[in-house]
From TrEMBL:
<dbReference type="Pfam" id="PF13242">
    <property type="entry name" value="Hydrolase_like"/>
</dbReference>
<dbReference type="InterPro" id="IPR036412">
    <property type="entry name" value="HAD-like_sf"/>
</dbReference>
<keyword id="KW-0479">Metal-binding</keyword>
<dbReference type="InterPro" id="IPR005835">
    <property type="entry name" value="NTP_transferase_dom"/>
</dbReference>
<dbReference type="GO" id="GO:0046872">
    <property type="term" value="F:metal ion binding"/>
</dbReference>
<dbReference type="InterPro" id="IPR006543">
    <property type="entry name" value="Histidinol-phos"/>
</dbReference>
<dbReference type="Pfam" id="PF00483">
    <property type="entry name" value="NTP_transferase"/>
</dbReference>
<keyword id="KW-0963">Cytoplasm</keyword>
<dbReference type="InterPro" id="IPR004446">
    <property type="entry name" value="Heptose_bisP_phosphatase"/>
</dbReference>
<feature type="domain" description="Nucleotidyl transferase">
    <location>
        <begin position="8"/>
        <end position="236"/>
    </location>
</feature>
<keyword id="KW-0378">Hydrolase</keyword>
<comment type="similarity">
    <text>Belongs to the GmhB family.</text>
</comment>
<dbReference type="InterPro" id="IPR006549">
    <property type="entry name" value="HAD-SF_hydro_IIIA"/>
</dbReference>
<keyword id="KW-0119">Carbohydrate metabolism</keyword>
<protein>
    <recommendedName>
        <fullName>D,D-heptose 1,7-bisphosphate phosphatase</fullName>
    </recommendedName>
</protein>
<dbReference type="GO" id="GO:0016791">
    <property type="term" value="F:phosphatase activity"/>
</dbReference>
<dbReference type="InterPro" id="IPR029044">
    <property type="entry name" value="Nucleotide-diphossugar_trans"/>
</dbReference>
Length: 408
């Protein structure tokens, strides 16, 4: 199975001519939406899926984007502080317009073996890691529209695309949603010079039977037209306010065998991986909130805990699922050295919930917390989040029942 990609490549070199005066000084992806650049929303979405590196393919007004994001260290992402994650930013700049295919080919030495490719002026939100589960040199996220005539129809047989960009025929159908998982061998098929992914690469891959596709139903917004850009001012902040599911770790995600801290001790609860993916597929933020007194007691170090947490996150990514973040409390009143203290973070205190809420700003009215102990429930209830006790069994079924009850 192909490894889930860590690199996202963003096409951000277009002229944005349809937006007229708006893009005279500012490249389209940098236009402000509710007070921050459109690209910030895109980067936030990539980070929460666990992407670590972004490569911008630039042309028009490239310096504006480079000056804004620099090496990616915090800038423009400051209000989305995500501890333990980073986003490195790189740039490839064309000196003359090369088209989407030409720009990608020009940057081929900077590409990972597999990467996510997306447009810098559209946001299509779905579980990107699910698309990465498709095996093959190239996979396209598809979107269902009432009339394909304007875009070019995509025909699908199973997961294989058998027709791409067909202009004939009207009515409902599938189109390219502008998010792709590509591999370097696919990029090698592009001709030298100016080329287009839509005209020169995807049809070629279809001929070879190598273009895969899957339809998704997530939030979609293209700021390329003036009315859509106006709509974005309200629609994007509303989209960004996602419901969250806060999960305790030991006894919820895994069988609690006491101070679990090594892969060989880890046993997933039945349905746990599926539960996380089910939530990812439906647009929930999934945040782990865990007391880690084992650090205070000296059973393992904080460094070791972070490495182990990265391993857990990676196991989920391999299954097409992801955790937005893991919050932990290393303190305990009977701990050792600097870890010996009362902490606002240690459940039943709500400190970790407060930090997670500040970082992610979820819609609490649609959020849910799941724990196996009374202290988990108390911490969640202290911040006004509905909390349920999980007493074992299948976590997927538990989550499905809990969220259908709430009328979703
Ligand atoms: Mg527990």
């Amino acid at each position: 199975m192909g490894k889930p990609p860590r690199q996202a490549v963003i096409l951000a070199g277009g002229l944005g001519t349809r937006l007229g005066a708006l893009t005279r000084e500012t490249p389209k992806p940098l236009l402000p939406v509710a007070g921050k650049p459109f690209l910030d929303y895109l980067l936030w979405n990539l980070k929460r899926h666990g992407f670590e590196r972004v490569l911008f393919l630039l042309g028009y007004k490239a310096m504006r984007i480079i000056e804004h994001y620099g090496s990616g260290a915090g800038h423009g992402l400051a209000d989305d502080a995500q501890r333990n994650t980073r986003l490195e930013v790189e740039y490839a700049v064309e000196t003359e317009p090369m088209g989407t295919g030409g720009a990608l080919r020009l940057a081929k030495d900077y590409l990972d073996e597999r990467f996510l490719l997306l447009n810098g002026d559209t946001l299509f939100d779905f579980n990107y890691l699910d698309l990465a589960l498709l095996e093959g040199p190239a996979a396209v996220a598809l979107r269902r529209v009432p009339d394909t005539a304007r875009y070019g129809r995509v025909r699908l047989e199973g997961n294989r695309i058998i027709g791409f960009g067909e202009k004939e025929g009207k009515g409902p159908g599938l189109i390219n949603g502008g998010v792709h998982v590509l591999s370097r061998p696919a990029v090698e098929l592009l001709p030298e010079g100016v080329s287009s992914l839509e005209r020169d690469l995807f049809p070629r891959l279809v001929e070879r039977g190598e273009l895969l596709g899957k339809p998704y139903e997530g939030f979609f917004l293209d700021i390329g037209l003036p009315e859509a850009y106006t709509e974005a001012q309200k629609a994007l902040p509303a989209w960004r306010k996602k419901p969250a599911v806060f999960l305790d770790r030991d006894g919820v995600l895994n069988h609690d065998e006491g101070y679990t801290h090594r892969p060989e001790q880890w046993r997933w609860t039945e349905g746990a991986v599926e539960a996380v993916k089910w939530l990812n597929d439906r647009g929930y933020l999934v945040l782990v909130i865990t007391n880690q007194a084992g650090i205070a007691r000296g059973y393992y170090t904080e460094e070791h805990f972070l490495q182990f947490t990265a391993w857990i996150h990676e196991q989920l990514r391999l299954a097409g699922a992801h955790l937005e973040a893991t919050y932990y409390c290393p303190y305990h009143p009977q701990g050792l050295g600097p870890y010996r203290r009362d902490s606002e973070d240690r459940k039943p205190n709500p400190g970790m919930f407060l930090r997670a809420i500040a970082d992610w700003q979820p819609d609490l009215s649609r959020s849910l917390a799941i724990g196996d102990k009374e202290s988990d429930l108390q911490a969640a209830q202290a911040v006004g989040v509905r909390a349920l006790r999980f007493a074992g069994g299948n976590l997927l079924r538990f989550v499905q029942d809990a969220l259908s009850e709430s009328g979703r």
